[in-house]
């Protein structure tokens, strides 16, 4: 078995009396899409934050590329190649779509402290950004102010910014949310290819997408992983059906 | 060329031609007035880097303005009285040379901005406004009660400092010095806004979380911007002191911070020429209205109100319209 | 310094703190809860004091003066809100700064135009003048005790208004998303006019109450403005409790700093320069306090953690 | 060719009352003289040093004035006077008299028609001695004028000090200071708290139940302020080089005509503005302003009828004059001052010796 | 008379036109699905109805009243309950305060909402900012119900909800429709669920109504053309 790119080991985190993560362990292997599902408030986003660095676990460790990154900041983890999208879009609304994408490229190049050369004239950066926009289908909108995008278009841009980082692993918090049926379908196809560039930890409530994409699924309930397995395993897992899927699956 | 660019060019040219006209028409005071506009605009250009680009609403930029002013005041005072500034551990003499004074003003205010910024940037939003105000006030009270350099009375430098090859006492020559520095600062600010740094800083203002997840530390971006901003405002302080041949703690007062900020808002926040337009309008109003009535502040207030209510985005915002920043 | 004097100075610090809260109460509502930067708060304070002084001079009644201060400032507040502030909620904070700065100019010079350039007379009513003896033998002006009582009552009232009433909930909701609260059926415009007028009225009342032991003159509002912002920010924006505690902290720091610092410096300096250095430091003290509080707790003592 | 006078004074904002009085006093004298050869330009400095400097530049560069005057505040004077006199203009101070300009920084073209800053405080110290005060508690704001004030008091005062406090500039609450006074064993209080600070202090002092005698310079007991302080000031002794009841013809005429012209009693500042204008007029009668040396001599002679009686300049161009003790009294509805006696006779300032010109 | 009717409504964001000719009709007690790809003007239509964006042209009526004459809060008070896109809970308010801030008396009260979304009851005193995404979504629905509207407008109200909750919400909507006769205008991406609940559908394309009719008449041909499924 190959070494996991990312692994979460016995992570716990409380908010007051609420246990948001309870001894969670999971990993992400090269080339896979590992879906993380679970009821609302189960602690998925909280776990993502602990992986990405916005929140420290009370106990447990996070390893990335073979290194213990638990004590590292978001910035340091991002520089190691952890690409993240947000559940609620975090974009520079006053800037153009292209500028948002270039920002990601800039971070990847790690050279924001240049004061003189106009950034838009930087061919390399621009190419990275435009490629990413093209891949999510936003290249036509490159010159538009981000605040003028519809909700769904912003979700696409979220993904594009993460792409420009050329990350070693993706962590995506509900990328499908807000995408229409066609958008979801398109993104599903896209993620399916993307997994070959870097594995994806995917939090998603869109079961069509999850079942179509996931190599493995972990189910988080009340901060605890109650099951990990293939699509089939999870679909037929009685407890998962009761706590999460309902009659749908 | 966009409307804003045209407007900026007109403004830049106007600020140059007006004093030249005054020179020909032998109206030396008009030159002084234009010099004042240029210098205060320079202070605004400094603040605008923090405020417009970085979203760092500092109500403490008077601190840097004052430090620049006192850098000039103290150096010139010692040069004038032939007393060394410092004897141990090594001898430092005062000076009356502008370039030296400018360097000292830049360095001193940058250093102050580094310290104040490092502490203040732990906070954000309105808290940031208030903590910068607090630092400004500390320096204000310190300057008032520090007897060595005149306390509240300030320091008078009877003769303007010198610049190699120029007669700084000639209003038009001093104006040109200020104008060239302002132009340089504007060019720098324009470049900064378009640079990778500007892009990142501007994004950090809008969504700091995102900037972190792409591997850039917002705190460091902001601190850098704050230091650059403070240094430019400090340089303006040194020039302002030289214009008046006088420094006093009022340069440190929160009203000074407020005034610099008002120039920016009036002209247009985050607009390259915002501070220039704002300072020019404000000083012109002050000059014209001041003669009208004892209660001219009322007219000034009404005019400012009209600008806020009907000229969205300041003067430049109104004339140039909404455009995507730094394209 | 004797123990009793120390106690008295602590009392003075507390008293000064409550007085600060009183002057900041209106701002707490407008700035802390509605989220509007109102630099003209000091002007409303001044309007209250002038209205009280003019009315008291005309009628000889302090109580009527207080009523007038409340009414005049609230009316000015409502007017300003409807004509100016209303258009600025959806704008940048900076536009509010410029607009309310303009209002300061208009109010200050307008007041001078109406009342002249000289300070006005406003004094403590006879019934409240002079000192009373507190337990322990401390003589303390009755009027100041009254101010403490009024200040605490207003604190309590505001606290209940903001945290316990639906009105308070709606104001806070409006602060975070005006469009949304309107789309849920709340007339946020009228609500904000009322709240702004209330904040202005409180500022005016404070101006009258405090004006009776200070100088009623143009420009009296400016130092108040800065201090009011300081206490609210130290306490944490949006928190009435924070504002009260911030006020008391600032009051104590300022009073005790001014008394104790020069004494401390006298231990190792000659008296004259000790007084000078000590008081120089004392005048910076509240700003040092504010900076330290914000460095340690970037959203104030009781502010919501972002 | 007329003499052009540039007046830079504070006409807006909180400190406007003083500037307005100086201006009104000055213009009254100009009007009474009816001399068409004097032209006055008046500008508002907003009490900001940099604005004052700018106005001075303008008056010198564009308006081409011969004489500058009008500044109320020491810090503004320090900003304007040195460069104005260096550019060859006359400056006549109707109010501020910072020590720097009386001593080392004196200048042949600078004349002070009011007082050196320390004068009234020195007189207060002298009065304290004569009144048998032995243990004063003294306080002033922590800035140069405040430090000068306490220094001035102590220069003449011979008793002990029960306490010495510097308050914050612009302070409005004095509970802590009053508590310290109460706890000390002082037999009197001397304070210098100009403007609103003095009003606040006096009101709070009166309400505190402490009733030690109070001494101070005239600034906190001036006509413009007294009505705002009210009964709290009654009985306070204060020192001044002028009062409306000084018995001479010039003063009587001044007080009457001022009241008639403006509908209020003149203040100390009005008297100073009035004297300043008359000094200029007296010099104009003797010399052409363009002949600087002659005009300077004419000013130095100070041959005009000062409303304070005898008036002459010392070697540093600062007044040598009597300084009186006044008491705050009530006349009908109006609070005003009454002269008790002379505190210092023919008093010159302490810095004259340092002036070399 | 229809409860809500839009006829040829147009609207602008600044200078750019977002709606051209939107027409739709919601009858008393009916559930209407508003459909279209991303960026086609669904949310804009809803904003226009709620007077958050001025209508530049066309007719906009609710229950016989001309909405174009009313400010936002008056329009809402006629009985429009909005669950906005992106939730827009008041982050500085507690869950309970969010629910009560704009509550109007009627069928829905705290108790009923708590029955519908028990988790909200558990988080009653917590600030809305710290809720999970899905919890915020439930809060937004609860908040709209608390105003006891006659027409409930749901803009992507099931976005980010767990499948089981989504089923519950659809069930709840079905119950609402059945028992209270509440009219509903719903935007959602799940065609499957819309088919079960909606009576009628309106399809937007580039700010224009391009199709409307009974839900059953929405053939795969149409959904393929306009919705991309
Ligand atoms: N800062 C906080 N303080 C208190 N409670 C918190 C905080 N942040 C999150 N919580 C609580 O922790 C729980 C887990 O939240 P989290 O956002 O991780 O859920 P989630 O699994 O991502 O849910 P969803 O699918 O709805 O987004 C929720 O009940 C939430 O209310
Ligand atoms: N605030 C805005 N300013 C300018 N243009 C906007 C704004 N909001 C939306 N638009 C534009 O209006 C059009 C319609 O947007 P709208 O949000 O109504 O779409 P939608 O159908 O709700 O899409 P989605 O399913 O993605 O939410 C889009 O092209 C969008 O770019
Ligand atoms: Mg989540
Ligand atoms: Mg939408």
Outline the structure in words.
- The complex is a heteropentamer of chains A (249), B (327), C (306), D (357) and E (229).
- In chain A, strand 1 (6-15) and strand 2 (18-28) form a beta hairpin.
- The relative contact order of chain A is 0.18.
- In chain A, helix 3 (97-109) crosses helix 4, helix 3 runs parallel beside helix 5 and helix 4 packs across helix 5 (151-164).
- Helices cover 37% and strands 24% of the residues of chain A.
- Chain A folds into 2 domains: 1-81 and 167-249, 3-Layer(aba) Sandwich (Rossmann fold); 91-165, no CATH class.
- The longest helix of chain A has 14 residues, at 123-136.
- With 249 residues, chain A is an alpha/beta fold.
- Chain A has helices at 44-52, 74-80, 97-109, 123-136, 151-164, 181-194, 207-213, 231-235, 238-245, and strands spanning 6-15, 18-28, 33-37, 59-64, 67-68, 82-85, 169-173, 200-203, 216-221, 224-229.
- Chain B is mainly alpha-helical and 327 residues long.
- Chain B has one domain (3-320): ABC transporter involved in vitamin B12 uptake, BtuC (Orthogonal Bundle).
- Chain B has helices at 3-24, 28-53, 62-81, 98-120, 125-145, 171-194, 196-206, 208-213, 218-244, 254-267, 274-290, 296-310, 314-320; strands spanning 155-156, 246-247.
- The termini of chain B are close together.
- The mean pLDDT of chain B is 91.
- Chain D has 357 residues and is α/β, with parallel strands linked by helices.
- In chain D, strands 6, 7, 8, 9, 10, 11, 12 and 13 form an 8-stranded mixed β-sheet that branches.
- The radius of gyration of chain D is 20 Å and the shape is globular.
- Chain E has a 6-stranded mixed β-sheet with strand order 6-7-8-3-9-10, sandwiched between helices. Chain E has a 4-stranded antiparallel β-sheet with strand order 2-1-4-5.
- The two termini of chain E are 34 Å apart.
- The complex binds adenosine-5'-triphosphate (2 copies) and magnesium ion (2 copies).
- Residues 42-43, 85 of chain E line the site of one magnesium ion (MG).
- Chain A: This is ABC transporter ATP-binding protein.
- Chain A: One of its GO terms (molecular function) is ATP binding.
- Chain A: Keywords: ATP-binding, Nucleotide-binding, Transport.
| Radius of gyration of chain B, in angstroms, nearest whole number | 20 Å
Strand arrangement in the largest pleated sheet of chain C: 1-2
Highest-level CATH class of chain B: Mainly Alpha
- Beta content of chain C comes to under 5%
The whole-number mean of residue pLDDT values of chain B reads: 91
- The low-pLDDT segments of chain B are none
Question: Strands across the major sheet of chain B, in which order?
Answer: 1-2
Oligomer: heteropentamer
Strand content of chain B: under 5%
Summarize the structure.
Chain A has 249 residues and is an alpha/beta fold. Chain A contains nine helices and ten strands.
How would you describe this structure in keywords?
heteropentamer; A: 249 residues; alpha/beta; Rossmann fold; 2 domains; 6-stranded mixed beta sheet; 4-stranded antiparallel beta sheet; 9 helices; 10 strands; 24% strand; globular; E: 229 residues; 34% helix; 28% strand; binds adenosine-5'-triphosphate; binds magnesium ion
